[in-house]
Amino acid sequence: MGRWLVIAGGQDFAIGLEPQRALARALPRARLVEYPDAGHFLYLDEPERFVRDVGAFLREGRSGR
Question: Are 11 and 63 in contact (CB under 8 A)?
């Protein structure tokens, strides 16, 4: 079974934080990471953190965790 990473921006007014939280709750083995000061385009608002978070998630998958 796969794992899921849901990254949500606290200032995302296109989708909103609550629907993203609900998605993370509904997906099996999901991890929610919230960026309180970011909007809809997390990779533009906080690119360094985005790369770190996605990279860490992918590395965890490779190590079988």
Answer: no
Evaluate whether 20 touches 8 at the Cβ level (below 8 Å): yes
Note the helical H segments in 1-65: 17-26, 42-45, 47-62
Burial of 51: CB neighbours in 10 Å, binned 0-12, 13-18, 19+:
exposed
Q: Identify the sign of the CA torsion 4, 64, 33, 52.
A: negative
Task: For residues 12-23, give the mean pLDDT.
Answer: 96
Q: What's the pTM?
A: 0.86
